[in-house]
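User: Can you predict the 3D structure for this chain?
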Amino acid sequence: MTLHATLRREWAADLTPQQLYDLLRLRVDIFVVEQKCPYPELDGRDLEPSTRHFWLAGDDGRMLATLRLLEERDGSFRVGRVCTAADARGNGLSGRLMEAAVAEIGSAPSVLDAQVAVKSFYDRFGYVTEGEEFLEDGIPHIVMRRNG
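Assistant: Here is the predicted structure, written as structure tokens:
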């Protein structure tokens, strides 16, 4: 069965308080609770004027997956906070979010810190590994870059 979900994209300043709460809650549920990584999820970048938030909402309005796109001062982008609710995985939702983010990034360079276990997922979108693996909150990560 295919899960129906509507793609949404908002600038940080255009998020409603409920939307911001829902996306932060989903990220905390995945990264802090499920992955058992107590870290500062609220890093000060979610409400920067150039930050874009992408998410997929179910027919009931529930946030199923989210992605944060940061625009750096040099014009490059950073993709991050990509996650899908546990009960919505396996439906291609993160892939839809990445397609939308890559379309928005266009030919600008972009970078992300991928969990090594899902590196091949980002390979599909033109990201290539750069440097050595590193541990972030006890989880192996690798820097991946895409140059347009």
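The helical segments are 17-34, 93-105, 119-123. The longest strand covers residues 63-71.
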